[in-house]
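re: ur question from earlier - yeah i can do the single chain one, its not a big deal. heres the input i used so u can compare w yours
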Amino acid sequence: MAIKATIHKAQLQLADMDRNVYADIAVTIARHPSENDERMMVRVLALALGWPADTSQGTLEFAKDMWEPDEPALWHKNFSDEIMHWVEVGQPDDKRLMKASGRARRVSLFAFQSSTPVWWSGIATKLTRANNLHIWQIPHEQSQALAKLAQRTMQLQITVQDGTVWVNDGSESLEITPQRLMGED
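and the output i got, formated as tokens:
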């Protein structure tokens, strides 16, 4: 018998002063049996950082990337089913990123593993044609600290200012400084 997903619920209070995006976001996260807390929490962080300023054409939502190979970790589809924003986490290969670049208006990737510099040095030159691709590295120590905030039910305040992200769960606060590897906003 297959192991089922573990359900997590999060209430996010987002204050992104860099983009003037303020939102209360309630999400249900289906955590794949092979997914760890670190990857799940990077997906939550990616949701907050990619939340659209204008939600009249839909919002960013969790997709089935670990169940369906043709889906990302998150995506924003408008009401015509056009992919507005495709979001990956981890270290996908260049073919996956180039395919996503052709399918979506915007593609973002949040890499968080300690091996990201080695992975990036081997893939960077293969992605130069993708003008809609934005790649960020979350420092590994910071993504591990973020993983420690994982609970089955979470209330997180996420504040973004001057490129720095603060995540607070009511008892602990941490600072995350995403580093841009590729793409301009």
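The domain at 6-182 is CATH 3.10.640.10 (Restriction endonuclease-like alpha-beta roll fold). not sure if urs matches, ping me
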